[in-house]
Design brief:
Elements: E1 4-9, H1 17-25, E2 30-33, E3 42-46, E4 49-53, E5 65-68, E6 73-74, H2 76-88, E7 96-99, E8 103-104, H3 107-120, H4 132-140, H5 147-150, H6 155-172, H7 180-194, E9 198-199, H8 201-210, E10 215-218, H9 242-247, E11 256-264, E12 267-269, H10 282-291, E13 303-305, E14 307-308, H11 309-319, E15 323-327, H12 329-332, E16 337-345, E17 351-352, H13 359-362, E18 366-373, H14 389-402, E19 406-410, E20 418-420
Parallel strand pairs: 1-10, 1-11, 2-5, 2-10, 5-7, 6-8, 7-9, 11-15, 14-16, 15-19
Antiparallel strand pairs: 3-4, 12-13, 16-17, 16-18, 19-20
């Protein structure tokens, strides 16, 4: 029986998970997506083209069975657009499967998302307003519509009841109410189109594992956006850590093999929330431009800063990383000097190396840095021993602090620009 490899973001998302997922998927029979919705995105380079993937697992490009697990919330319109995009590019989606237990996003979820963000006022979270949070809320309130309901005869009555209840809230706040008939007409056509993909993925996955098939799980967002272990409330609405992999697929703990945490050689964050190593200066702007730090899904400019080893060690502890994958080594090499955050100093001058997710504490923390020499060219290098000495020093400092080996190193934007140790 083969073990399942897991790829997780270590910080706030956008670490470049797609590149590592792409590599591991070529060696796997099954590729699983476990949490989140179309608020996340991976950019995959394939056959000379770039694809922005939001729901379908990246393994679809390598011919693996691509499974959207039960922990994912699915916008059927977005999913069908993604299927169409792939098919028009000559990429088959015949091996796509959707868990019958995955919950469906509807227009009332998106409208409610906007309403909640509006009501937060100056305390806004920075949601993508794609209905992700409200869909998970309905799931926990046991009023959600799962894929198995969506493609069944129960759909019309469940939808009618949900829209009637949501409209009471919209009316209370003076918002436009949702028209049941138009939503049902549109979404019943989506249900018909997606029905062939819907099945019991839990037993399917376990059957395949027992046959010795290789499985890779791709995480969405990242550790510090986890609903429990992230910088709450500035987080996403699902478990984006290792626990979410199990809950979002039906895998068991003893199925898990390697757990790779993905980072950049610097850091970034989109949206609101504390960010200790953020650089609100020319250096931060330079990193953003050198690294092309604009959101795959939202196109928003990302906040940029130095790599935070305090946060990385926390992520390694929470997830049990067996290895780290680091992207953008070539990017930081273009800077004259590079810094690593190795501690947090509080208002009283006390220094800690333990991360806290309390935003009130984080906003008053100052980073303690170690400085390293930059000005090295790592572009396109594929062997560790070929890296410049400065780059090796930087990498080994990260490994020593975190206690986890860096097994993958991205040295450029192309899928081939990768050192494998």
């Amino acid at each position: 029986m083969k073990k399942v490899d897991v790829i997780l973001g270590a910080f706030f998302g956008d670490e470049g998970k797609g590149k590592i997922i792409d590599y591991l998927s070529t060696k796997s029979d099954l590729s699983l997506r476990c949490a989140g919705g179309n608020n996340a995105g991976h950019t995959i380079a394939f056959d000379g083209k770039k694809f922005a993937m939001h729901l379908i697992p990246s393994g679809i490009f390598s011919g693996a069975v691509a499974i959207i697990g039960n922990g994912v919330v699915v916008d059927p319109k977005v999913l069908l657009e993604e299927i169409k995009m792939l098919n028009e590019a000559g990429i088959s989606t015949d091996k796509l499967l959707i868990s019958e237990k995955a919950h469906v996003i509807f227009p009332y979820h998106k409208e409610y998302d906007e309403l909640e963000e509006e009501m937060r006022g100056k305390n806004k979270i920075g949601t993508t307003k794609r209905g992700i949070g409200p869909t998970y809320s309905d799931k926990m309130a046991r009023t959600g519509i799962r894929m198995e309901d969506f493609v069944s005869s129960k759909f019309s009555s469940l939808l009618k009841n949900n829209i009637a209840n949501k409209n009471k809230i919209f009316a209370l706040y003076g918002k436009e109410e949702i028209d049941y008939k138009s939503v049902y007409k549109e979404y019943s056509s989506y249900a018909k189109a997606l029905k062939p993909y819907v099945c019991d993925t839990v037993n399917y996955i376990h059957d395949e594992i027992e046959k010795g098939k290789k499985v890779v799980c791709e995480g969405a967002q990242a550790t510090l956006l986890d609903i429990d272990f992230g910088t709450y409330p500035f987080v996403t609405s699902s478990n984006t850590t290792i626990g979410g992999i199990l809950n979002g697929t039906g895998l068991a703990a003893n199925n898990i093999g390697e757990v790779y945490g993905v980072i950049k050689a610097y850091s970034s964050r989109v949206g609101e929330g504390p960010y200790v190593t953020e650089l609100k200066n020319e250096i931060g702007d330079t990193i953003r431009e050198l690294g092309h730090e604009y959101g795959t899904t939202t196109k928003r400019p990302r906040r940029c800063g130095w790599l935070d080893l305090v946060a990385l060690k926390y992520a390694a502890r929470v997830n049990g990383f067996t290895g780290i994958a680091m992207n953008h080594l070539d990017t930081v090499g273009k800077l004259p000097e590079i810094k690593l955050c190795v501690g947090y100093e509080d208002e009283n001058g006390n220094v800690t190396k333990n991360y806290t997710t309390n935003p009130d504490l984080l906003k008053n923390m100052k980073p303690v840095y170690e400085t390293f020499e930059g000005n090295f060219d790592a572009t396109g290098i594929k062997k560790f021993n070929k890296l410049p000495a400065n780059a090796k020093v930087y990498i080994k400092a990260i490994e020593k602090f975190v206690g986890v080996p860096i097994k993958f190193i991205g040295t450029g934007p192309d899928r081939e620009d990768l050192i494998i140790r």
